[in-house]
Amino acid sequence: MRKRPIKLSLRLNEPEYEHLKEQAALSGFPMEQYLRSLIANEKMRPRPPNEYAEIRRQLAAIGNNINQIARAVNARGFASKEDIDAVTEAKRQIWEIAERL
To answer: Can you give the pTM of this predicted structure?
Structure first.
């Protein structure tokens, strides 16, 4: 048995249909799922751009590098010039990524 046995027919004019297609595409959901979400009064947000996944990966890698430097500094009890330079470079990369947003 289907989860949704009730079929609904809806008539739209061309501008309404085009608007519905655009909104569903922005949400990233298929049109049926988009309409179900509207009916359920769920808050709909546009799908984030595809490059966000790459930005998150880059930020995670930078964060890992900073954590490794912090561990080494804590173990030694002091920060070397190389450590400070590496953290400064990581900060620069983070700002570069933030400017792309």
So the answer is: 0.49
Structure confidence by residue, pLDDT tens digits, 9-60: 899 999 999 999 999 888 888 999 999 999 998 887 777 777 888 888 888 8
The answer to whether 64 and 58 have CB atoms below 8 angstroms apart is no
Contacts of 97-101 spanning 24+ positions with Cβ under 8 A: 97/55, 97/58, 97/59, 100/51, 100/55, 101/55
Q: How far is CA 91 from CA 34, 62, 67, 73, 97, in A?
A: 39, 9, 13, 17, 10
Three-class secondary structure assignment of 46-87 = CCCCCHHHHHHHHHHHHHHHHHHHHHHHHHHCCCCHHHHHHH
Please say whether the beta carbons of 27 and 46 come within 8 A: yes
Instruction: Determine the 3-state secondary structure of 13 from DSSP.
Output: coil
Place of tokens 């799922």: 33
